[in-house]
Amino acid sequence: MVIGTIADAVGRQIEGVARGMSGLFFEPVIRLGVTGLSRAGKTVFITSLVANLLDRGRMPGLAAARSGRIEAAFLQPQPDDTVPRFDFETHLAALTGPTPHWPESTRSVSELRLSLRVRPTGLLGGVSGPRTVHLDIVDYPGEWLLDLALLEQDFASWSAQALTRAEARFEAAAYRARLEATDPTAPLMEPAAAVLARDWTTYLQAARIAGYSDCTPGRFLLPGDLEGSPALTFAPLPPSAAPRGSLAREFARRFEAYKAQVVKPFFRAHFARIDRQVVLVDALGAIHAGPQALEDLRQALAGILGAFRPGRTAFLSGLLGGKRVDRILFAATKADHLHHTQHDRLAAIMAALVADARRRADFAGAQTQAMAIAALRATVEEVRSVNGAEMGLVRGTLLDSGKQAALHPGDLPTDPAALLTPARSGADRWLDGDYGVMRFAPAPLSLRPGDGPPHIRLDRAAEFLLGDRL
């Protein structure tokens, strides 16, 4: 175990030297991680970002695009031959075709390389001419992201936390009943273990649909080729003695195997090489689901963001593999579901949700920012008179019925504490209002030459994440 850990560290150091030398003497690479929980819109974000970097007519907030210093942008094969390519063309066709629809959600890791030919500023621009900057975008399921918080837990602490959450949710009733009839100290019987794992997975699926965020282990929801393996055949148990050969002892062993053989390799292969990070959050969906869902989201984000290792590294440390994320964007998505007069409130709520994580990142030397965005704008705004008062609405095509509808989802509070305080105190509903959410379909587009898909603040997000490197 110790030898393996040392070998991993040496391997990462050698890889870090290669990356550092490449960035210094050849073509610099920005490795952007796009993460977020389910329904946050990762696929749409990447598709629209790439489309708007290829055709930059809607990117005035990106200084290099506004000044014309980005002379060309083009897609290239990604450098990782073992990672599937992000299917940009298929996703863009889904969003911009004659009958637009949302693309399928992320189900596995994928990557895309976009290369930008950029004219440097100042004296260097007159001497060296344009240079090529590579943007490597890494996408992976939000469900897997949740597992990063497990790395610092053992089976007993994870079980206690998971069962505490499950006690308050009716979606876990079947699993709780199964657990009542289970003796954790009994000898392991594989059929009984499989039933427990199946019932826990069923609960996780129902909890996710209900709007809860912290549904671990994440691979239970998207198992891929691990389905049915012992590494995915365990579930939380109440504290008990764990004699050799017992169900409790085996579940604890499988939990550690899950971390060592599933979570850690994923972390090393992808997270450890990230330069910049965007964390997408469906804050509106959590608010609509209620105080408990919002508090669950806050806790999930706190656990996740501890794995990003934020902060700037010294020159030598960078060469030796001490990579750190030096810019993190916390983006509340689906801003097009609100009138623009409420966007600042949504951004403030997003900032409050990740306040603890932002303070840690800022202290470590990373730059952070919270923002309300829509990677693809699916609505238009209008103002109507209601009972003699003007009300800002958004209008779009409903996803389920295909009919046009105008929505005022409710006024978000000016002070985020009006939501976060009842959420932290365990309230079961909002006292001061009900926040509605409608699911809109993407609108048919008629794009002018040179224009990417319409968005809200995607250019500002790109400036924060990439602008200093362009």
Describe the model.
The protein is α/β, with parallel strands linked by helices and 470 residues long. It has 2 domains: 2-140 and 270-378 and 445-469, Rossmann fold; 154-264, no CATH class. It contains 17 helices and 10 strands. It has helices spanning 2-25, 42-54, 63-66, 88-96, 122-128, 142-145, 155-167, 173-180, 190-209, 247-269, 283-289, 291-305, 315-319, 343-353, 355-363, 417-424, 458-466, and strands at residues 29-36, 70-76, 110-118, 131-139, 276-281, 327-332, 367-372, 380-386, 389-397, 404-407. Strands 2-3-4-1-5-6-7 form a 7-stranded mixed sheet, sandwiched between helices. It has a 3-stranded antiparallel sheet with strand order 8-9-10, with no helix packed on it. A hairpin with a 2-residue loop joins strand 8 and strand 9 (389-397). Helix 8 packs antiparallel against helix 9, helix 11 runs antiparallel to helix 12 (291-305) and helix 12 (291-305) crosses helix 16 (417-424). Residues 1-25 and 314-321 have low confidence and may be disordered.
Question: What order do the helices and strands come in, and which of them pair?
Answer:
Layout: H1 2-25, E1 29-36, H2 42-54, H3 63-66, E2 70-76, H4 88-96, E3 110-118, H5 122-128, E4 131-139, H6 142-145, H7 155-167, H8 173-180, H9 190-209, H10 247-269, E5 276-281, H11 283-289, H12 291-305, H13 315-319, E6 327-332, H14 343-353, H15 355-363, E7 367-372, E8 380-386, E9 389-397, E10 404-407, H16 417-424, H17 458-466
Parallel strand pairs: 1-4, 1-5, 5-6, 6-7
Antiparallel strand pairs: 2-3, 3-4, 8-9, 9-10
Helix pairs in contact: 2-4, 8-9, 11-12, 12-16
